[in-house]
Design goal:
Distance between the termini: 46 Å
CATH superfamily of the largest domain: MetI-like
CATH topology of the largest domain: MetI-like fold
Helix content: over 70%
Number of helices: 11
Number of strands: 0
Radius of gyration: 23 Å
CATH architecture of the largest domain: Orthogonal Bundle
Number of domains: 2
Structural class: mainly alpha
CATH class of the largest domain: Mainly Alpha
Length: 273
């Protein structure tokens, strides 16, 4: 073995060692966070949290409000994201499609607080106050680029032969897309939508500017709307132990919700992919 080979072997060992140490360090902090969250969250859990609203020391209205806003964001964002993804893969070509892909990637990495500030300036300030609709729109803006990227990638995995077979049978392009291509990619698309939903349901920053939170049960998206994540932020800053314990319980529940949604998405891929 000459000196060049020895130097390359040594460099490889150093890089491998540093990578291993970094991975282990990240896992240590991850497990530290999860263990702390589990111990403090479980100890603060009580069945009354699911039967009372925040004003009475429960979390019922907050869980409901968080799901409602995430669901509304999904209803708004999924059709727009899927249509954009279909255009990019099936109709778009050249520099314009690449520009849209680049913009979508930029939006995926945009800080959520910036999106919240944008929605506040465009929707909240003109309307005169925070409201649930603005929170849903902020979450939808975050969800759209995820769905665009998922749709684009999943449709790219559909074999070209399926498109050619559909056209050969006399199907128009939009019928081939709707009846063949989307059905072939439905598992991946559904998984992407679930993961996007899990992504936005745990967001806090954009809701601070848009929906705020509400201590009472509410179904009116036109006013301040109950939010689990925003309430966790508020409760964690309260000086009382009762409020902080409630924040730990809410944090644990939110983590479980996000984990379950992600596991469902992974299960769909493994079971039907």
């Amino acid at each position: 073995m000459n000196s060049t080979e020895r130097r390359r072997l040594l460099t490889n060992k150093i890089i491998l060692g540093l990578s291993t140490i970094s991975a282990l360090l990240g896992l240590v902090f991850l497990f530290w966070i999860l263990i702390t969250l589990f111990l403090k969250g479980v100890s603060a859990l009580d069945f009354s949290l699911f039967t009372k609203d925040l004003v009475d020391g429960g979390l019922r209205n907050l869980i409901f409000g968080q799901f409602v806003m995430a669901l509304m964001a999904t209803i708004i964002g999924v059709p727009l994201g899927m249509l954009a993804g279909i255009y990019l893969r099936e109709y778009g070509n050249g520099k314009y499609a690449n520009i849209i892909r680049d913009l979508s990637d930029i939006m995926m990495s945009a800080p959520s607080i910036v999106i919240g500030a944008f929605v506040f300036a465009v929707f909240v300030a003109p309307s005169g106050g925070i409201n649930g609709w603005a929170g849903s729109i902020a979450l939808a803006i975050m969800l759209i680029p995820i769905v665009v990227s998922t749709t684009d990638n999943m449709l790219s995995l559909v074999p070209k032969e399926l498109r050619e077979a559909g056209i050969a049978l006399g199907g128009s392009k939009h019928k081939v897309i709707l009846q063949i291509i989307l059905k072939a990619a439905k598992v991946g698309l559904m998984t992407g939508i679930l993961l996007a939903f899990a992504r936005v349901i745990g967001e806090t920053a954009p809701l601070l500017f848009t929906s705020g939170t509400n201590s009472f049960w509410s179904t009116n998206l036109g006013n301040a709307f109950p939010s689990l994540t925003v309430s966790i932020y508020d409760l964690a800053n309260f000086p009382t132990d009762k409020a902080r314990n409630l924040a730990w319980a809410a944090s644990f529940l939110l983590t479980v919700i996000v984990l379950v949604i992600n596991l469902i998405g992974r299960f769909i891929i493994r079971d039907k992919g």
